[in-house]
Structures are given as C-alpha cells and as structure tokens.
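ok here's 2-octaprenyl-6-methoxyphenol hydroxylase, seq below lol
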Amino acid sequence: MNADIAETKDQVAPKEMVAPKEMAAPKERAETRATRSFDIVVVGAGPIGLAAGMAFAHAGLSVAAIGPTQPPAAPGRTTALLDGSVRFLEAIGAWDEDALGQAPLAELAIIDDTGSLFRIPPVIFHAGELELPAFGYNVENTDLVAVLADRASRTPGLTLLPQFAVDLHVGDDVARVTLDDGSSVEAKLVVAADGRLSRMRDAAGIACHERSYPQIAITAILSHDRSHRDRSTEFHTRQGPFTLVPLPGRRSSLVWVCAEKEAEALQALDAAAFGRAVERQAQSMLGAMRLEGQRGAFPLAMLTADRLVSPRLALVGETAHVLPPIGAQGLNLGLRDVAALRDAVVEAHKQGADFGAAAVLARYARDRKTDIALRVGAIDLMNRSLMTDLLPVDGLRGAALLALASVTPIRRLAMREGLRPSLFPPRLAHGVAKSRWDKTALENGL
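and the structure came out like this:
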C-alpha cells in the first residue's frame, strides 16, 4: 500500500534543557508539591499521545497526558489516515469530518519512473474492490493536531498537563514521572509517546537502532489545474518516491524524496520554478502546479527501539519506530500501537488485574512485533531497491509490481493488509463501523 504519509512528531523537551539530575528543585519547593496519581500517564501531547489519552479515558481510566500541545512546525505536511486509523479515531470521538477538511483516497496509483528495462504498466488500486468508499483520508497536520487537542481537552477523565516530563522512576507497584516544574505524577502504567528523542525511553535504558538514508524529503502543498479525482499517485524514481496525495478541491500534498544535491537545488528555486519542476516530475498529470505556502524538508531516517516495553512502561508511535514518509505507514502504525495497548490494558482492567504488570505489557509487545517488523522491513527494502539499478533487483521489484497489477488475490491481500492488518488486529481499528461509534460497545471492548 503506497499512499504517502508525512507523519507528525510528538513533542519532546528541547535539546537545550538541562539534564534531570542537574535541575533538581530547591528542597522547600519540592516538599510543597504533592504527587498526583492517575491510572495511566501518557508522556507526549502530539497526535499519538493525545489519541492514547482519549482511548484510555474513554475506557473509564483516569489519565494524564503530559506535554505542550503545539501545531507542527514543518510546513506542507499532511497525514494520510487509512481506514483502520479513521475507525479508531471515530471510536474515541476524535474524527470530525467538517473540522478536518479531509480528502478521500479512492484510488492509489504506482507509476514506475525508474527507467528500468523491466517496464511495468501503472498499478492502480480501487477502494471499491474492498467495498469501501475510500482507502482513507488525507488531512493537513495542522488541522489534525487542532482537532485532537480540542477533543482531548473536552474528554472526561483526561487531564492535560502542559509541562515537559524530565525523568522516570519505576517502583514495584507504580511509576513516577518528574515534570520540569518540580512536580510529579504517578500511575500503574506510563505510555511513552514523546517522539524519537524520547526521555522516557532513555530513562528506561531502551536502546535504538537507526539507519540514515542519503535522501531528503521535500514537502509542500500545491494547487493545480486538473482534478486529482481522489487518486493518490506515487512515482517510483531512482532517487526515491515522488508522491502527490489529494486534498480538498484541486489541491494536493507533495512528498518528494530525492538525493541530497537534488533537494538543495529544488529548495533554491523560487515558487514559480518549483511549481514547474513538480509539474515536470508529475508528467503534467495534474496540469500547472502552484505552490501554496512554504516548503519543508527533512532527511530520511529509520529508527526502531530494541524493545517496546520495560517495567511499567510501554512505547508507542515514534518513540518505538520512526519510518520514512513512504507507504502511508508512520502515524497509522503508531495508532495501531495505541489501539493494541488499549486492548491489553482494558482486558486486564476488566479482570481486576494489574494492567501495568509485565504479563500485560508482554502481550502488547507480542501483538505488535510482527506488524512493526513487516512494515519497517518492507519500507526499507522498497526504498533501497529504488536507489540501485542492478538488474536482479529491478527484476524482482518489477515482478512484485506485476503481481500486484494482475493477480487478484495478491492485490486484495495487499490492500487489506495495508489498511487493517489481520495479524493481531486491535479491536477499535477493526470492529467499529464507520460513523457508528457506540460508547457502550467501546467500554465493553467491542
């Protein structure tokens, strides 16, 4: 599944912040600050952290979400929320079609523009093949963060604390999170959603594996002369994917992955020249292109945590895995983390068990292991295969695209797994009918 996504990072404490041990509050101030207790503490108030806070609060748990909620800084970025993610957001009361101004992704197209000897016709997926009106919906990140923050602020049982979390201490029965104002909160379970520079992950001693790519992703929003017909189109080039994803009206979001020198040249172009460059790369598919607002750019990298859990701590979203903006997986993968963790916690809570216990967290880690590994491996393999012109690699990639284009069972399997993986499916991402959120069903884990 190759609709593009530009994922939004959760907020983390600034790099210049003094290390926790060096910023201990004066003794008299520390003694006057009581520790607040909750069932669950979520560290991070980006999209994943806010969604996690709402999911647990809707299940009847008391939750604190820690971190300042701010609009994403990178310009021109959008998120392609796939069907399973939309169902999850509906289930927690965080999907607002009017406020989000989303565009449906009714078709997904892959066009091979590598110049390979193995010329493959365009591969086009239709949502109607799965009896869906759309594979998902593309929304601007600023709108998504605003809606999530608004809904979170009005969710009963969810307390938003705008401070930064700076340290973590784990006991036998509870974990305590220290905030930058000297106060602290404690809970049976801490959910780390504080992004790729996570302090909670570091405090727990969880190591990460990182891979850097010699590529830059340029992001932008453009208007164009022709209708996109609700089709997301991904051109495979030797430098990486070039993807245009629909937005409302005759507008599309762009993620252009290219070599570092090419990215520098594109960034140096004025707005008109950049629009012409996009039109050429898109083979004039949408006619003349006009840049709206500013362009963004960031280097491509991949990060995976060695493990998803530690005593009374669970990692979700970019704290656990950072993916290049390829294949519409980044934020969608993080929302599946939240949905799976909620399933494990709610089941334990109903049974009167300690939902922060090792056995509960082990279930979460086990349920997410396969999905994460498959997504990380597939995106890494696909991206690296585009950057080589070795005939055997081109042949294998061409054969895979041909199978997707012509073998119906493979097409349908790829589409289903891209939207809502069938291995260990989170209940809220699979079983809640679109636009039919039933709070009683949600609280009963249905």
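fwiw The chain has one domain: 20-210+302-430. kinda neat tbh
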